[in-house]
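Onboarding guide, step 5: your first structure request.
Type a short instruction followed by the sequence, for example:

Predict the 3D structure of this protein.
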Amino acid sequence: MTPDELTEMPTRSPGTVTALGDGDEPAPSPYKSMFRNGAILYPRLLIFVEKAEAGPLGAGAGRVAVTSFRTSQEKEPYKSQPSLTGRVEQRFVRPVYLGETVLPHRCVTPRQAVLPIDNGSILSPGKLAEYPGLSGWWNQAESTWNTHKPASDKVHLLDRIDYHGQLSAQLPLSALRVVYTKSGNTLAAAVVRDGSAVIDHKLYWVPVAAEAEGHYLCAILNSSTLLERVKPLQALGLFGTRDFDKNVFAVPFPRFDSADSLHARLANLGAQSEKEAASVDISGVRTFQAARKKVAAALVAAGISQEIEDAVAELVPLEAVLPTTD
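The system replies with C-alpha coordinates like these:
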Protein backbone atom coordinates (compact mmCIF):
# COMPACT_ATOMS: atom_id res chain seq x y z
CA MET A 1 0.00 0.00 0.00
CA THR A 2 1.33 3.39 -1.02
CA PRO A 3 1.69 6.37 1.37
CA ASP A 4 -1.05 8.17 -0.60
CA GLU A 5 -3.43 5.26 -0.07
CA LEU A 6 -2.66 5.20 3.63
CA THR A 7 -3.60 8.86 4.03
CA GLU A 8 -7.02 8.15 2.53
CA MET A 9 -7.84 5.38 5.01
CA PRO A 10 -10.42 6.06 7.74
CA THR A 11 -9.08 7.23 11.07
CA ARG A 12 -10.38 6.66 14.57
CA SER A 13 -10.78 9.10 17.44
CA PRO A 14 -12.56 9.07 20.79
CA GLY A 15 -16.25 10.01 20.65
CA THR A 16 -19.21 10.43 22.91
CA VAL A 17 -22.44 8.45 22.90
CA THR A 18 -25.34 9.63 25.00
CA ALA A 19 -28.07 7.07 25.72
CA LEU A 20 -31.06 8.55 27.45
CA GLY A 21 -33.84 6.49 28.94
CA ASP A 22 -37.28 7.60 30.04
CA GLY A 23 -36.95 10.11 32.83
CA ASP A 24 -33.15 10.33 32.56
CA GLU A 25 -32.88 13.49 30.50
CA PRO A 26 -33.09 16.95 32.04
CA ALA A 27 -36.10 19.14 31.32
CA PRO A 28 -35.60 20.88 27.97
CA SER A 29 -35.18 24.59 27.52
CA PRO A 30 -38.54 26.43 27.60
CA TYR A 31 -37.68 27.73 24.14
CA LYS A 32 -38.27 24.25 22.68
CA SER A 33 -42.03 24.78 22.53
CA MET A 34 -41.66 28.35 21.25
CA PHE A 35 -39.51 27.85 18.14
CA ARG A 36 -41.21 26.62 14.97
CA ASN A 37 -39.97 25.29 11.66
CA GLY A 38 -40.38 27.62 8.68
CA ALA A 39 -42.60 27.10 5.63
CA ILE A 40 -41.92 24.48 2.95
CA LEU A 41 -41.89 26.72 -0.13
CA TYR A 42 -41.55 24.07 -2.82
CA PRO A 43 -41.20 23.56 -5.74
CA ARG A 44 -38.86 26.55 -5.71
CA LEU A 45 -39.17 27.03 -9.48
CA LEU A 46 -42.82 27.98 -8.97
CA ILE A 47 -42.36 30.30 -5.99
CA PHE A 48 -38.91 31.92 -5.87
CA VAL A 49 -38.28 34.75 -8.31
CA GLU A 50 -35.89 37.44 -9.45
CA LYS A 51 -36.63 40.70 -11.21
CA ALA A 52 -36.99 40.54 -14.97
CA GLU A 53 -36.86 43.08 -17.76
CA ALA A 54 -40.20 44.88 -17.75
CA GLY A 55 -40.05 46.09 -21.37
CA PRO A 56 -40.61 49.57 -22.75
CA LEU A 57 -44.10 49.91 -21.22
CA GLY A 58 -42.97 48.83 -17.73
CA ALA A 59 -44.61 46.32 -15.44
CA GLY A 60 -47.64 48.45 -14.66
CA ALA A 61 -48.58 50.50 -11.63
CA GLY A 62 -47.88 48.67 -8.38
CA ARG A 63 -46.47 45.61 -10.16
CA VAL A 64 -43.01 44.18 -10.71
CA ALA A 65 -41.80 42.00 -13.58
CA VAL A 66 -40.43 38.70 -12.30
CA THR A 67 -39.18 35.37 -13.56
CA SER A 68 -38.38 32.09 -11.82
CA PHE A 69 -35.15 32.06 -9.85
CA ARG A 70 -33.07 29.15 -11.19
CA THR A 71 -30.19 27.29 -9.54
CA SER A 72 -27.87 24.44 -10.46
CA GLN A 73 -29.29 22.43 -7.55
CA GLU A 74 -32.68 21.90 -9.21
CA LYS A 75 -33.84 18.32 -9.71
CA GLU A 76 -36.22 16.72 -12.15
CA PRO A 77 -39.01 17.03 -13.06
CA TYR A 78 -38.67 20.78 -12.46
CA LYS A 79 -35.09 21.17 -13.66
CA SER A 80 -36.16 20.78 -17.30
CA GLN A 81 -39.27 22.97 -17.02
CA PRO A 82 -39.29 26.49 -18.49
CA SER A 83 -39.17 29.47 -16.16
CA LEU A 84 -42.39 31.20 -15.19
CA THR A 85 -42.71 34.89 -15.99
CA GLY A 86 -45.20 37.51 -14.91
CA ARG A 87 -45.99 41.00 -13.70
CA VAL A 88 -47.03 40.51 -10.11
CA GLU A 89 -48.40 43.06 -7.66
CA GLN A 90 -45.45 44.23 -5.57
CA ARG A 91 -47.22 43.42 -2.28
CA PHE A 92 -47.11 39.70 -3.13
CA VAL A 93 -43.37 39.56 -3.83
CA ARG A 94 -41.99 38.83 -0.38
CA PRO A 95 -38.47 38.49 1.04
CA VAL A 96 -37.76 34.98 2.29
CA TYR A 97 -34.95 33.97 4.63
CA LEU A 98 -33.43 30.54 3.96
CA GLY A 99 -30.65 28.68 5.75
CA GLU A 100 -28.08 30.01 3.30
CA THR A 101 -29.01 33.62 4.11
CA VAL A 102 -28.08 33.28 7.79
CA LEU A 103 -24.54 33.71 9.16
CA PRO A 104 -23.51 33.90 12.82
CA HIS A 105 -25.19 37.05 14.22
CA ARG A 106 -25.89 38.32 10.70
CA CYS A 107 -28.37 37.91 7.85
CA VAL A 108 -27.51 38.49 4.22
CA THR A 109 -29.87 39.56 1.44
CA PRO A 110 -32.97 37.32 1.45
CA ARG A 111 -34.43 35.66 -1.62
CA GLN A 112 -37.68 36.87 -3.19
CA ALA A 113 -40.81 34.76 -3.62
CA VAL A 114 -44.33 35.16 -4.96
CA LEU A 115 -46.62 34.34 -2.04
CA PRO A 116 -50.40 34.85 -1.89
CA ILE A 117 -50.48 36.31 1.60
CA ASP A 118 -52.02 39.60 2.65
CA ASN A 119 -53.41 41.22 5.80
CA GLY A 120 -52.11 38.44 8.00
CA SER A 121 -53.57 35.46 6.14
CA ILE A 122 -53.16 33.22 3.10
CA LEU A 123 -55.55 34.28 0.33
CA SER A 124 -58.38 31.95 -0.62
CA PRO A 125 -58.65 30.99 -4.31
CA GLY A 126 -61.53 33.44 -4.72
CA LYS A 127 -59.63 36.29 -3.12
CA LEU A 128 -56.47 35.46 -5.05
CA ALA A 129 -58.40 35.83 -8.32
CA GLU A 130 -59.05 39.51 -7.51
CA TYR A 131 -55.39 40.32 -8.26
CA PRO A 132 -54.66 39.88 -12.00
CA GLY A 133 -50.87 39.79 -11.68
CA LEU A 134 -50.82 37.33 -8.79
CA SER A 135 -53.51 35.10 -10.26
CA GLY A 136 -51.70 35.04 -13.61
CA TRP A 137 -48.54 33.80 -11.92
CA TRP A 138 -50.34 31.39 -9.63
CA ASN A 139 -52.33 29.83 -12.47
CA GLN A 140 -49.04 29.02 -14.23
CA ALA A 141 -47.60 27.63 -11.01
CA GLU A 142 -50.66 25.48 -10.25
CA SER A 143 -50.69 24.10 -13.78
CA THR A 144 -47.03 23.07 -13.57
CA TRP A 145 -47.56 21.64 -10.08
CA ASN A 146 -50.61 19.59 -11.11
CA THR A 147 -48.75 18.19 -14.12
CA HIS A 148 -45.62 17.11 -12.27
CA LYS A 149 -46.58 16.45 -8.65
CA PRO A 150 -46.52 12.83 -7.40
CA ALA A 151 -49.66 10.88 -8.29
CA SER A 152 -50.32 10.27 -4.61
CA ASP A 153 -50.30 14.00 -3.82
CA LYS A 154 -53.84 15.38 -4.12
CA VAL A 155 -53.34 18.84 -2.61
CA HIS A 156 -53.33 22.14 -4.48
CA LEU A 157 -50.16 24.24 -4.49
CA LEU A 158 -51.91 26.75 -2.25
CA ASP A 159 -52.26 24.02 0.38
CA ARG A 160 -48.79 22.64 -0.28
CA ILE A 161 -47.03 25.86 0.74
CA ASP A 162 -48.85 25.75 4.08
CA TYR A 163 -47.90 22.14 4.86
CA HIS A 164 -48.50 21.47 8.57
CA GLY A 165 -49.52 25.12 8.96
CA GLN A 166 -45.88 26.19 8.75
CA LEU A 167 -46.68 29.29 6.67
CA SER A 168 -49.93 30.35 8.36
CA ALA A 169 -48.23 29.99 11.77
CA GLN A 170 -46.01 32.93 10.78
CA LEU A 171 -48.99 35.21 10.08
CA PRO A 172 -49.30 38.00 10.88
CA LEU A 173 -45.57 38.39 10.34
CA SER A 174 -43.53 39.51 13.34
CA ALA A 175 -41.17 42.46 12.98
CA LEU A 176 -38.52 40.96 15.30
CA ARG A 177 -37.56 37.29 15.16
CA VAL A 178 -34.63 35.02 15.92
CA VAL A 179 -33.81 32.31 13.39
CA TYR A 180 -31.33 29.45 13.43
CA THR A 181 -30.26 26.87 10.86
CA LYS A 182 -31.68 23.37 11.24
CA SER A 183 -28.81 21.41 9.68
CA GLY A 184 -25.12 21.50 8.83
CA ASN A 185 -21.88 20.96 10.69
CA THR A 186 -22.24 24.23 12.57
CA LEU A 187 -25.23 26.21 13.73
CA ALA A 188 -25.83 29.85 12.74
CA ALA A 189 -28.38 32.14 14.36
CA ALA A 190 -29.31 35.78 13.76
CA VAL A 191 -31.97 38.38 14.38
CA VAL A 192 -34.41 39.10 11.54
CA ARG A 193 -35.85 42.63 11.59
CA ASP A 194 -38.36 42.57 8.76
CA GLY A 195 -42.10 42.50 9.26
CA SER A 196 -42.67 41.58 5.60
CA ALA A 197 -40.34 38.55 5.47
CA VAL A 198 -41.24 34.86 5.51
CA ILE A 199 -39.04 32.15 7.03
CA ASP A 200 -38.21 29.02 5.01
CA HIS A 201 -38.20 25.48 6.42
CA LYS A 202 -34.41 25.33 6.53
CA LEU A 203 -34.68 27.63 9.54
CA TYR A 204 -36.39 27.56 12.91
CA TRP A 205 -37.84 30.86 14.13
CA VAL A 206 -39.36 32.53 17.17
CA PRO A 207 -40.74 36.05 17.66
CA VAL A 208 -39.09 38.04 20.44
CA ALA A 209 -40.47 41.05 22.26
CA ALA A 210 -37.17 42.89 22.66
CA GLU A 211 -33.75 43.20 21.05
CA ALA A 212 -32.07 42.04 24.25
CA GLU A 213 -33.82 38.66 24.16
CA GLY A 214 -32.83 38.26 20.52
CA HIS A 215 -29.17 38.95 21.28
CA TYR A 216 -29.29 36.58 24.28
CA LEU A 217 -30.63 33.76 22.11
CA CYS A 218 -28.13 34.41 19.32
CA ALA A 219 -25.21 34.40 21.76
CA ILE A 220 -26.27 30.98 23.07
CA LEU A 221 -27.26 29.42 19.73
CA ASN A 222 -24.04 30.50 17.99
CA SER A 223 -21.80 29.26 20.79
CA SER A 224 -19.45 26.30 20.47
CA THR A 225 -20.36 25.31 24.02
CA LEU A 226 -23.96 24.64 22.99
CA LEU A 227 -22.80 22.88 19.83
CA GLU A 228 -20.52 20.46 21.67
CA ARG A 229 -23.26 19.49 24.10
CA VAL A 230 -25.77 18.94 21.31
CA LYS A 231 -23.55 16.89 18.99
CA PRO A 232 -24.12 13.52 20.72
CA LEU A 233 -27.83 13.94 19.98
CA GLN A 234 -27.46 14.76 16.27
CA ALA A 235 -27.95 12.45 13.32
CA LEU A 236 -24.56 11.19 12.14
CA GLY A 237 -23.98 11.71 8.41
CA LEU A 238 -21.12 10.90 6.06
CA PHE A 239 -19.28 14.11 6.89
CA GLY A 240 -20.16 14.28 10.58
CA THR A 241 -23.20 15.30 12.55
CA ARG A 242 -25.84 16.95 10.39
CA ASP A 243 -29.22 17.85 11.86
CA PHE A 244 -29.78 20.19 14.79
CA ASP A 245 -33.55 20.61 14.54
CA LYS A 246 -34.82 21.01 18.10
CA ASN A 247 -32.02 18.96 19.70
CA VAL A 248 -30.47 22.28 20.68
CA PHE A 249 -33.08 22.62 23.40
CA ALA A 250 -31.94 19.45 25.14
CA VAL A 251 -29.40 21.87 26.60
CA PRO A 252 -31.74 23.43 29.18
CA PHE A 253 -30.89 27.11 28.94
CA PRO A 254 -33.53 29.32 30.60
CA ARG A 255 -35.95 31.91 29.24
CA PHE A 256 -34.42 35.37 29.03
CA ASP A 257 -34.75 37.47 32.17
CA SER A 258 -33.59 41.07 31.82
CA ALA A 259 -33.13 41.29 35.60
CA ASP A 260 -30.60 38.44 35.60
CA SER A 261 -27.04 39.80 35.33
CA LEU A 262 -25.73 36.77 33.43
CA HIS A 263 -28.59 36.98 30.92
CA ALA A 264 -27.92 40.69 30.50
CA ARG A 265 -24.23 39.99 29.93
CA LEU A 266 -25.02 37.45 27.22
CA ALA A 267 -27.43 39.88 25.58
CA ASN A 268 -24.74 42.56 25.55
CA LEU A 269 -22.20 40.14 24.08
CA GLY A 270 -24.73 39.12 21.44
CA ALA A 271 -25.22 42.77 20.51
CA GLN A 272 -21.44 43.26 20.26
CA SER A 273 -21.20 40.16 18.08
CA GLU A 274 -23.89 41.43 15.73
CA LYS A 275 -22.06 44.73 15.32
CA GLU A 276 -18.75 42.96 14.66
CA ALA A 277 -20.35 40.48 12.25
CA ALA A 278 -21.91 43.32 10.25
CA SER A 279 -18.46 44.88 9.73
CA VAL A 280 -16.93 41.76 8.15
CA ASP A 281 -16.36 42.11 4.40
CA ILE A 282 -17.82 39.03 2.73
CA SER A 283 -18.13 40.54 -0.75
CA GLY A 284 -15.45 38.27 -2.18
CA VAL A 285 -16.70 35.07 -0.54
CA ARG A 286 -18.22 32.56 -2.96
CA THR A 287 -20.29 30.34 -0.65
CA PHE A 288 -22.40 30.90 2.43
CA GLN A 289 -20.34 28.28 4.27
CA ALA A 290 -17.18 30.30 3.67
CA ALA A 291 -18.99 33.48 4.73
CA ARG A 292 -20.00 31.84 8.00
CA LYS A 293 -16.41 30.80 8.67
CA LYS A 294 -15.12 34.28 7.95
CA VAL A 295 -17.58 35.90 10.34
CA ALA A 296 -16.89 33.30 13.02
CA ALA A 297 -13.13 33.88 12.68
CA ALA A 298 -13.62 37.64 13.06
CA LEU A 299 -15.58 37.13 16.28
CA VAL A 300 -12.81 34.91 17.65
CA ALA A 301 -10.16 37.47 16.70
CA ALA A 302 -12.14 40.22 18.42
CA GLY A 303 -12.20 38.19 21.65
CA ILE A 304 -16.01 38.20 21.82
CA SER A 305 -16.44 34.48 21.15
CA GLN A 306 -14.44 33.38 24.18
CA GLU A 307 -16.44 35.69 26.44
CA ILE A 308 -19.64 34.13 25.12
CA GLU A 309 -18.32 30.59 25.60
CA ASP A 310 -17.46 31.35 29.22
CA ALA A 311 -20.86 32.90 29.86
CA VAL A 312 -22.77 30.02 28.24
CA ALA A 313 -20.75 27.50 30.24
CA GLU A 314 -21.73 29.42 33.36
CA LEU A 315 -25.37 29.57 32.29
CA VAL A 316 -25.60 25.84 31.61
CA PRO A 317 -22.91 23.88 33.47
CA LEU A 318 -21.97 20.55 31.91
CA GLU A 319 -23.59 18.59 34.74
CA ALA A 320 -26.92 20.22 33.88
CA VAL A 321 -27.09 18.32 30.58
CA LEU A 322 -25.83 14.93 31.78
CA PRO A 323 -28.30 12.10 32.43
CA THR A 324 -29.26 11.65 36.05
CA THR A 325 -27.93 8.55 37.79
CA ASP A 326 -28.81 6.82 41.04
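Each response can be followed by summary notes, for example: The two ends are 51 Å apart (CA to CA).
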